[in-house]
């Protein structure tokens, strides 16, 4: 049993971006939500393992990563990829740096590449500075992120605060010179003590060149673009890859629900658009204890279950709500309570026969998938809705659309539900 390329995604929606793009390219992906099934998946070309490493305390994230990599090593994984958000979402405590340091130690690596950015989604890195939709990340909507506000656009400096290893740049001007020149540059920087290379990502040519340099490394790290390109180059370099006919997906039939955990400006506009034609309950997590909030929400849902209309729940609120919740519970405490409320609602709705779930927010998505006890999912190819469409591989065939907070058209919730029905 062996795996050619294993992607460890630090959240659920990020893993779906990689998987859906590879499926679109004809590369089959096994998407794992519960690592207990790893021992039974057989030979695979690409496995994406969805985790919730991003916001764990650093020591917990490292312990989780240790157990996960040990399980992957036991089944013969050839290349490990630690995948984080294209906007390098993290705090100064981690978890990108601590997890990278652990991987360096465990695999006795002498270098490690870091590649935030995703040109296809207008997220770029130039001279180490991160741009989101043509603005410095520190001047974009990401500066208001409630958990990981991005106030420093210099990603090498951000990473250096998280590690004792020397961080250097692999800049666009070097990558533009071609693989041989860039490889020589990396080797010269290594000789000078650089161990971590923050790679520019101005365009997809940068991504392709960087993938060629680090293709044979046991471990790499980066965002979606580098993960996709490495998987493609690994397939091109060998002939014994898997090829299979993909049968039409089987979807379960049942109720439809939208669950909103993200409080980004984009998500709030999407929520309001959905609420203009569907029942939407706004839940103030400061108003009561978790059990009462869930019970009241389910009672509200029961009164509307016979309408055959999609319903929605939001814990996002407005900025004042968020500030009040964070003041009372702490930043992570507020986030965790919100996720737990939505996850408990989702689990009970699934028991009542709901089979179509649209979720906004990476951490919220992870909490809900865990609450639904989904172990593996079939990921559908990237399409006009973007990534996020998947179906549980169990007898319920639950359809999901898991959406990061900061992307998507204003009508994406209704469009995703319509796609599930169609």
Describe the structure.
- This protein is of the alpha/beta class and 422 residues long.
- It folds into two domains: 3-236, Rossmann fold; 255-421, 3-Layer(aba) Sandwich (Molybdenum Cofactor Biosythetic Enzyme, Chain A), CATH 3.40.980.
- 39% of the residues lie in helices and 20% in strands.
- The strands form three sheets. Strands 11-4-1-3-2-16-17-18-15-12-14-13 form a twelve-stranded mixed beta sheet, sandwiched between helices. The protein has a three-stranded parallel beta sheet with strand order 5-10-9. The protein has a three-stranded antiparallel beta sheet with strand order 6-7-8, with no helix packed on it.
- Helix 6 (179-191) crosses helix 7 (204-214) and helix 11 (319-329) crosses helix 12.
- The protein is globular, with a radius of gyration of 21 Å.
- The relative contact order is 0.14.
- The mean pLDDT is 93.
Tell me the layout of helices and strands.
Blueprint lengths: L2 E7 L2 H13 L4 E4 L11 E7 L7 H17 L2 E7 L12 H11 L5 E3 L8 E4 L2 E4 L2 E2 L18 H6 L6 E4 L1 H4 L3 H13 L4 E4 L4 H11 L4 E4 L1 H13 L18 E6 L4 H11 L4 E3 L7 H13 L8 E4 L4 H11 L1 H21 L2 E7 L1 H10 L4 E4 L9 E4 L6 E5 L8 H10 L1
Parallel strand pairs: 1-3, 1-4, 2-3, 4-11, 5-10, 9-10, 12-14, 12-15, 13-14, 15-18
Antiparallel strand pairs: 2-16, 6-7, 7-8, 16-17, 17-18
Helix pairs in contact: 1-8, 2-3, 6-7, 7-8, 10-12, 11-12, 12-13
């Amino acid at each position: 049993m062996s795996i050619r390329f294993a992607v460890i995604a630090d959240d659920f929606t990020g893993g779906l971006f990689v998987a859906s793009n590879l499926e679109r390219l004809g590369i089959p992906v096994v998407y794992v939500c519960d690592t207990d099934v790893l021992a039974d998946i057989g030979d695979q070309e690409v496995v994406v393992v969805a985790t919730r490493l991003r916001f764990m305390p650093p020591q917990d994230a490292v312990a989780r990563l240790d157990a996960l990599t040990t399980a992957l090593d036991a089944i013969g994984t050839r290349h490990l990829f630690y995948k984080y958000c294209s906007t390098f979402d993290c705090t100064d405590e981690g978890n990108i740096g601590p997890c990278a340091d652990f991987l360096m130690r465990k695999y006795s690596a002498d270098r490690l590449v870091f590649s935030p950015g995703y040109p296809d989604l207008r997220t770029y890195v130039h001279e180490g500075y991160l741009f989101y939709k043509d603005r410095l990340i520190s001047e974009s909507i990401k500066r208001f992120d409630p958990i990981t506000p991005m106030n420093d656009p210099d990603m090498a400096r951000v990473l250096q605060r998280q590690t004792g290893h020397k961080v250097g740049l692999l800049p666009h001007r070097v990558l533009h010179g071609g693989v041989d020149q860039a490889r020589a540059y990396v080797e010269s920087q290594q000789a000078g003590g650089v161990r971590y290379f923050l790679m520019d990502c101005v365009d997809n040519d940068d991504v392709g060149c960087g993938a060629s340099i680090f293709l044979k490394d046991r471990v790499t790290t980066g965002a979606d673009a580098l993960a996709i390109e490495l998987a493609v180059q690994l397939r091109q370099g060998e002939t014994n890859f898997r090829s299979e006919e993909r049968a039409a997906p089987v979807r379960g039939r049942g109720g439809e629900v939208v669950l909103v955990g993200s409080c980004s400006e984009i998500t709030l506009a999407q929520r309001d658009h959905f609420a203009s034609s569907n029942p939407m309950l706004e839940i103030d997590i400061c108003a009561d204890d978790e059990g009462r909030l869930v019970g009241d929400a389910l009672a509200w849902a029961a009164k509307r279950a016979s309408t055959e209309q999609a319903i929605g729940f939001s814990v996002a609120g407005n900025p004042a709500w968020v500030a009040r919740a964070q003041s009372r519970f702490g930043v992570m405490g507020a986030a965790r309570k919100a996720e737990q409320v939505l996850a408990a609602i989702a689990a009970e709705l699934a028991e009542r026969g709901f089979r179509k779930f649209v979720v906004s927010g990476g951490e919220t998505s992870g909490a809900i998938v865990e609450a639904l006890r989904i172990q593996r999912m079939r990921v559908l190819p990237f399409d006009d809705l973007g990534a996020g469409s998947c179906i549980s591989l169990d007898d319920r065939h639950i359809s999901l659309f898991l959406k990061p907070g900061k992307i998507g058209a204003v009508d994406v919730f209704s469009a995703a539900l319509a796609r599930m029905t169609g």
